[in-house]
Amino acid sequence: MRSPQTLRNGETRRNIHTPTPTPHFHSTVTVQKLRRFNSLILVFRLAAFCFSLASSVFMITNCRASSSPHWYDFDAFRFVFAASAIVAVYSLFEMVASVWEISRDITLFPEVLQVWFDFGHDQVFAYLLLSANSAGTEMAKTLRNSDTCTATNAFCVQSDISIALGFAGFMFLGFSSLLSGFRVVCFIINGSRFHL
Known about the structure:
By secondary structure, this protein is mostly helical. 71% of the residues lie in helices and 0% in strands. The mean pLDDT is 85.
C-alpha cells in the first residue's frame, strides 16, 4: 500500500472514487456534419413555421361580407386556425432553440431534456395539425356539395388554400420529427444526440 504523503511526477491528491469526466472529442469534419444536420433541422422548422403561419392567416382573413359565411361559424375551420397558430408558435420557439444550438454548440435545455422535448412535441403537434386539416378537408368537401360554395366561391377557395398550407406545414413538421427521432435514437445508443 502506498503512503498518502508520497506524490510523484506531478500527481495531485484526488479522491479515487470520483471518476474524471471524459470530454467528447469531435473532429473538424464531425463538427461540420453536426452543423449541417442542425441547419437542416432549422430549415424544416422554418418551413413549418411559414406554412403554419400562412395557414392561420389565410383562415382568419376568410371573411368577405356580412351575408357570406365566416370561418368561425364552422368548428372544423376554428380547429384548423387554432392548430395552425399553435404550431406556428411552437415552430418559432424551436427555431430560436435551433439557432441557439447552432451558434453556441449547446442545447437550450439539458441535452436529455432537449432531445425528448423536441421529439415528443414534434409528434404531438404534427398529429394535431394533421387531424385539424383532415377535419377542415371534410368540412370543405361538405361545403362544396352544398349551396355555400356556389354562392360564395371565394370563401371556399380561401378555406382550401388554408387547409393546403396546413398540410404543407404538417409535412415539414413531420420531416423535423424524423430528424428529432433520429437524435433520440442516437442519444439512446451513444448517450449523446450526435450520431458521430
